[in-house]
Amino acid sequence: MAAGPSDAAPQALRDLPPVPSTSRTGFAEFSVRERMREKLKAARAKAEITLLQEDRSPRPRRLKSIRERKTDFRLDKASDNDKFSEMQEDESHLPSKMKFRDSVKRHKQKSTFQNDFPSAEEAYNFFTFNFDSEPESIKAGARKRNELNEEEEAEEECVETHEDEQEEDETDEDARLVKDDDLFIIGQTAEDFLVMKPADCESYSEQLKKEKEFLFTPSMLAVPPSEKMPGNMQPRYLEDEGLYTGERPFVSQSNQNILENRILRQEQGKEWFGDDGKILALPNPIKQSSTRPPIFSLEEGIAPELETVYRKAIKMTAANQYLVGPGDFQGPFQLDIDISGLIFTHHPCFSREHVLAAKLAQLYDQYLARKQKNLTKLLTDKLHALRNAVECSIDGGDAGVPRPVAQQSIPEYKIEIRQTRRLRDAEQEKDRMLLKTIIKVWKQIKSLRDFQKFTNTPMKLYLRKEEVDQRLDEKAYEAEIQAEINELLEECMEEYEKKMKEYKTELQEWKSWKKTQKSKKKKKKKDIHEEEESVEDCDLGEERVKPIPPKMANSLEIEQQVREKADNCRRKPGEPALIPELVLSGSVTPTELCPRAEVLRREDVKKRSAFIKVLFNAKEVSRTVTRPISSDFRVHFGQIFNLQIFNWPESLKLQIYETMGMSSTTLLAEVFIPVPETTVLTGSAPMEEIEFSSNQRVMLDHEGVGSGVSFSFEADGSNKMTLMTSGKVSNSVSWAVGEKGIPLIPPVSQQNTGIPSALKNIDAIASIGTSGLTDMKKLAKWAVEAKLDPNDPNNAALMQLIMVATSGEARVPDFFRLEQLQQEFNFVSDEEFNRSKRFRLLQLRNGEVAEFRNYKQVPLHEREISEKIFEDYEKRLQERDVIDSKNYLDAHRAVVANYLQKVRESVINRFLIAKHNFLLSDLVNEEEIPSLGILGLSLFKLAEPKRPLKPRRKERKKVTAQNLSDGDIKLLVNIIRAYDIPVRKPVMSKLPQPSKSSRSFNDMFAASPSAQSPMDSPDWALNQVLVRPFVEVSFQRTVCRTTTAEGPNPNWNEELELPFRAPNGDYSTHSLQSVKDEVFINVFDEVLHDAVEDDPERGSGIRTRVERHWLGCVKIPFTTIYFQARVDGTFKVDVPPVLLGYSKEKNLGIERGYDSVQNLSEGSYITLFITIEPQLIPGESVREKMNEMLKKFDTQEEEKLLQAAAKYEAECTSKFPSRKCLTTVIDLNGKTVFITRYIKPLNPPQELLDAIPNSSQTAAELVARYVALIPFLPDSVSFAGICDLWSTSDQFLYLLAGDEEEHAVLLCNYFLGMGKKAWLIIGNAIPEGPTAYVLTLEQSQYVIWNPSTGCFYGQYDTFCPLQNVYCLIGCDNIWFNMQEYDSPIRINFDISKPKLWKSFFSRRLPYPGLRSIQPEELVYQHADKAAAVELQGRIEKILKEKIMEWRPRHLTRWNRYCTSTLRNFLPLLEQNQGKDIEDDHQAELQKQLGDYRVSGFPIHMPFSEVRPLIEAVHSMGVHTIDVSNVEFALAVYIHAYPQNVLSVWIYIASLVRNR
Amino acid sequence: MAAAGSPGVFLLAVNGQIESGQFPGFDDLYCKFCFVYGQDWVPTAGLEEGISQITSKSDVAPTTLVWNFPIDITFKSTNPSGWPQIVVSVYGPDFFGNDVVRGYGAVHVPFTPGRHTRTIAMFVPESTSRLQKFTSWFTGRRPEFTDPKVVAQGEGREVTRVRSQGFVTISFNVVTKDMKKLGYDVSPSDMQNPSLVPVTEGIHKY
Q1: 3-state SS class at A1294
Q2: Which of A266, A835, A1096, A1451 is the most exposed place for a label (fewest CB within 10 A)?
Q3: Rounded Cα–Cα distance for residues A696 and A770 (Å)
Q4: Cβ atoms of residues B10 and B76 within 8 Å
Q5: Distances in Å between the alpha carbon of A800 and those of A788, A795, A822, B99?
Q6: Which residues of A363-398 are buried (b: 16+ CB within 10 A; e: fewer)?
């Protein structure tokens, strides 16, 4: 339609005016210039078109005809004349066109730059053209006659106007002109609009004609290939060339043709065709088999294709490597097993004759087989040929074969000849022997038949004689012998030569040796010293024998040998050749003629029958019919079994059964049949005979010889033989062939079954058998032979496999790799991996190694990781086995620490595993099903008063420790009040020495004479306040203090807030549980001193110096707070035994009459409330889980006992859920142990008992103190709150570390050992939390002992830290507290009352007498005094260094005098256990340090490590004093108790010199 | 951040929005999101977690709840391991007006730069028993994960049973910096202008 624009343009020119006309209303919008330009554009377009028309002068006619379709059919009556005139008209217009061309030329010169624009204009025209067909038709109507010319005219008009325009100036004149144009058109249209015209109607033929112009109907005929192929090319078929071309998607041929025709119409249509002249197409993407499992609908009335089809059940037999799965089920596979019959070679019912006959038959078979092979003949021929060859090569050597080659081959030939001869001789001998045996057996049969007077077998042997020519035969025989002799002679000669050579060399050697021998002998005479050597030599020499020369072979001898041999194994010359022939033509004696025994035998045989079972994969699949055994012991079945199989056959077995009469069936033998190769198909399979034999022993009472029974053919019974039942099954096994000739063989893969014709090539299994699949070599070989198309994607996997296999000579590695792809995924080599610090860091972090567990942002580059990161870790690894005595000061303790560390690590490792096991409750928060009680309670709550008079603490929401960071957790310490704070001593100048008469009064602690000057004392006395205590809480080196209160019973009620930082910023439960930090609550006295006492200007201003004096402390481990969520109660303040300058106020107001033992524990108390904000959920679940896990470890307890324990626990906890019932615990080995096994009377150190022999009370105190001196190490710290491990007392004493349970157990055992009544209390105490105490019965009242402090309390002591009692444990029973209350004050400890105490062992379950796991007796090491002294010195040194370290800006002076004084005091303190000596001490001190103001105190601690000592000293804050002239004194005393239990005393004091 | 020119960290800037959710039968839902990332990742800018407005179903699209809740966060990291995941949990009132969880879901932030849309299938933990189910329905305290971040990890999930509950569509615009310099080439080789790749990833068929 290239003509489109050209004919549109003229019309457009006519239509052009409306554009300006529309714009005329908005005249101002268009500048004249613009409109002018438009006109110019139009004109130029027109000009171009005209030019185009003229250039292609032959075309206008055709163009016109196309263009004027409309007018054509409107003027269907228009004559040819019209057209003719039209042509003329065209010509007539030429001049004007020429003129226009000129103008265009001019115009173009003027405005060449506009060349690009007309397209827009054209487009405009083009689009408006269609809509403005009316004016055209109007015009057409107006000039009916020369309508054909109208356009030319219009053109002319336009041209004229354009010419005008160009001639005129491009000014306002133009506007007028346009107006004229418009007017002209309007004027014309005004009348033309009204012209009517008939409705358009096209004739059908016209329409067709028109459509033909438009439409193209592609032909359905095939396109000749020449059109599809470019030029002179031949179509090329890739498939024929062997390249893989996929299957093309199916398109019907007609459609394909249509498409081809259509494509060919296009330009470059040939690109769409491939080399083979077909349209290019990708392989068919549709899979032949559906990948989705079919959906079966059970509903009725569904589409038939969706209906369910009954299928036989497919057996799914698992555990088969070649299981043909139901997914790619190809149909049944079939094995045809043809069992034709059974022949017994021996049967119990064989008569003697049968035996012989069977033997004969066997021999005959053998003979036939040999004859068929005819080895003798073959070898003889070969021998002849070889001999000829040798002769030829010797004789005609120069003629044909080159000399050296022939020479070389002769010895080879000779060797060959020898071998062949030997073989032939052997074969000949065998032949001859066989023949002889056959004849012998036949003779036996004959004689037997004669003997027994009947025949049982139809066998007959004929010997056919073949006469030979005697002379020829003899000649050949002789020639043969001669040849053999010659050869042998030759052989012998060779051998002789060889031996001769050997002999010569040996002789040579012998001679030389002889010579040396002689010379040595000479030497020997000279030198006696070398005697030994030469003797040795002589010994050697004597062994040598002079070699014997070989013998020459004798030809006569050889000849004799050869002849002898020939006689033996060869037919004699002239003797006829014997050919045996076995026939079954003999007649069997009928039964009537036989003797009785034989009749019986025959009847027995008749009774017998046999059948065969077929077992496939060890399962019986079918069996033959039972057929009687015929008299010749053959059974014919002739049955074919078709086995449809689903599994790859593993074994195929036949079982041969014999039935006797009606009843008994015996299994004779089993025969395994090989599974046929896939090439063995039914029809082509040969019959095979498979031998079987049975070791059954059968003895018969008739003529039958039986099986496994020896019998003899000889009359005298000699030459016995024993035969077993044996026989042959003739059968054939093959793969069946299906209806379409498809073998029903399990395929190797789905794809390959479709092509049955090429099955052998494609199916690997079919051609090489299944075993070949695992043999890469075979597979590769097959692949090469099968010539697989390497381009076929179906074969891709196989090809790759084969390529791998063949590239390395099909070498199969002789190892098996489990993760064969691992190598590919290793992104760096192992060495590099190990070398890289980054990978190491990542690995360690992944392994949750403590140091790296929370390492953030492992640097990307190796260089950014400093070596230091690993230093700590490596150090730890190294130190694991190195005992570091520096840190622990004591070798034993270092060992213990090491041991504990190891136990800890192993437990932590277990824990880490447990941590990764989640319970549902760890992941999902699910509300408990509310019980009725809870519902009722919540209902009750509604009625609660809004502001109760006694408000209770509300449970706060717990926070899991997952999304916490530094600063999120705060420790809240609420200091409420304190009681009985020591008060300052009233300062008196002189006081009488206090008497020691009564210790129940505290006022005996009269102050020693004060060093203060008498001048000060009145002043001091006036201002005297008893004490101004304040509390300082220090935690993680953060210190917070309360305000100062006054008096010995101060009331602060202040809340202190301390931030908490978890170690390494790890806020996981596990980490929090292992925080070892303690909260120190120190009570101080604030003392104001006048700073300048001697200041002359005293009156004008007072400067006071604030001093603080430590009074006591309470330590609460963080873990306690963490586990209990809050610590609330009144605690005893740990006040040092000696507080210089302070005394306890006499508590006259408080009367505790019932408290007879209380006096010992009298002291200061402080009421505290400590909690963590926000409340953290302690990792109880993990702990419980770990316990559960540990319980799964082996136990030595009886199952019954454990069950009873579980039941007991469940019963108890169901009644009192808050009370913990303990029946079994875990020992250090992780085994579950029944708790009473820990309780057993044990002997305390004799030393302690000897100390105070008469007082059992003091002895008990001493023992308690000893136990308390064993360092305390909570399990929750060492084992990170994972589990509670109980060590036995000896373990405990060895480790010298343990928590409350161990202390309590030991103490309890000691008390029992001392003859007291003692029990273990499992309960809850503050601040420890769940703990174990010891209860003793002393003079009809119960005393509660705190094993970790050594303190004891009466049952009714209000300050007893034990708050709740859950259960009591004795050495033979457990009692659970069934009373309403569990506070020791409110309960009855009488365990004999079953209502109050539920016992574990009762009448129902008597105590089984569990053996204790404690040792019989504890053995104590004697106290090592020397070591203690050494340790003492070291600790003192360390502490002094530390104090100096803590005072970096001050000079720390040590007062040696004071130190030595203090050192003298400490043993005294130890002796008196810190009691009753204060007065002496004070006095002594004051006496010696008269002019110093001393403040200080001794600290007493059990010794475990140095760190806690340092911590304690630091928390006392003695070093904080910053008076310029302060001096310090520090003394350490260590008292060693048996078993290395060390009691450490640290006396630290600060001295300020008084002026 | 070595001077040598090879950087020590790479950056991942994610912005986008939690566009909409499809929770048939539920209405008036809001969602929370948070990011879960490995130890080597540090958010440098933007919000790690957020909570959206409550949105109601419209008559126009009665199955879609539109939040259009913006996400904007930048991470820096030294290790692609622990690549950030966004964890979305959707809550809304139940029959009694209790605020219950309507779904948890998580998806990794796409690692190829460009615009991505992900549709997350959401699920809720199931009650352990029928009675529990009833009581939890009645009391409005349905089982919830102790921490929504559980859904971003595999450990321990075997003890839970969940029910699927709807879908949330999130669009991400991912910008990475220095990934390629550090040897992590995540963009396909044939992709010249990643932003022009059609956004047809994620679970659209269900």
Answers
A1: helix
A2: A1096
A3: 36
A4: yes
A5: 12, 8, 19, 60
A6: bbeebeebeeeebbeebbebbeebbebbeebeeebe
Q: Which of A36, A58, A155, A56 is nearest to A107 (CA)?
A: A36
**Residue A304 to residues A277, A295, A308, A309, A540, Cα–Cα distance (Å):** 42, 13, 8, 10, 105
Model pTM score: 0.46
* Closest partner CB to A925 (pick from B6, B8, B146): B146
Q: d(Cα A61, Cα A822) in Å, to the nearest integer?
A: 81
Nearest-by-Cβ selection for A857 from B40, B139, B157: B40
Separation in Å, CA of A35 to nearest CA in chain B: 45
Residue identified by tokens 């028993």 is B129
Alpha carbon distance A744, A735 (integer Å): 6
Give how far B146 is from chain A: nearest CA, Å: 5
DSSP annotation of A737:
B
The CA dihedral of A1327, A1333, A1337, A1343, to the nearest 10 degrees, is: -20
CA distance B193 to chain A (A): 28
What residue of A is the nearest CA neighbor of B134?
Answer: A929
Provide, as residue numbers in chain A, all residues whose Cβ is less than 8 Å from the Cβ of B180.
none
CA gyration radius, chain B: 19
Question: CA of A295: how far to CAs of A219, A306, A331, in Å?
Answer: 44, 8, 20
| Residue A807 neighbours by CB under 8 Å, 6+ apart | none
The larger pLDDT score, comparing residue A1331 to residue A1283, is at A1331
Q: Which residues of A603-640 are buried (b: 16+ CB within 10 A; e: fewer)?
A: ebbeebbbbbbbbbeeeebebbeebebebbbebebebe
Is B153 touching A (CB cutoff 8 A)?
A: no
- In this complex, the residue of A855, A860, A918 whose CB is nearest that of residue B39 is A855
Give the torsion sign (CA, A425, A428, A430, A436). Answer: negative
Segment 810-849 of chain A within 8 Å of chain B by CB:
842, 845
Closest-CA residue to A1107 (of A1082, A1090, A1088, A1093): A1088
Q: Return the closest-CA partner of residue B86 out of B14, B164, B11.
A: B14
Tokens 């002249």 locate to A277
Give DSSP secondary structure letters for A1172-1212: EESEEPPSHHHHHHHHHHHHHS-B-S-HHHHHHHHHHHHHH
- What residue in B sits closest to A858 (Cα-Cα)? B40
Q: What is the pLDDT of residues A339-397, one digit of tens each?
A: 888 888 888 878 778 888 888 888 888 888 888 887 778 888 888 888 887 777 766 54
What tokens appear for A350 in the block?
């064989």
- A1529 with A1519: CB under 8 angstroms? no
Contact B74/A at CB under 8 A: no
Q: Please spell the DSSP secondary structure of A1364-1400, one letter per residue.
A: EEEEEE-SS-EEEE-SS--SGGGS---TT-TTTEEES
Residue type, B201: E
* Residues of chain B contacting A927 with CB distance shorter than 8 Å: 132, 135-136, 139, 141, 143
Please identify which residue in the block is written with the tokens 């106290």: A1423
Please check whether residue A932 touches B, CB under 8 A. no
How far CA A486 is from CA of A482, A499, A560, A626, in Å, comes to: 6, 20, 13, 66
Kindly tell me the burial class for residue A137, based on how many C-beta atoms sit within 10 Å of its own C-beta (0-12, 13-18, 19 or more): middle
Q: Does B181 touch chain A (CB under 8 A)?
A: no
Q: ipTM of the assembly?
A: 0.80
Q: What's the token pair of residue A922?
A: 């760890």
How does pLDDT run across B28-77, given as a tens digit for each residue?
999 999 999 988 899 999 999 899 999 998 888 788 899 999 999 999 99
- Note whether A860 contacts B145, CB cutoff 8 Å: no
How far is the C-alpha of A1017 from the C-alpha of A1020, rounded, in Å? 5
Can you read off the two tokens belonging to residue A585? 């033509």
Q: Is B44 on the interface with A (CB under 8 A)?
A: no
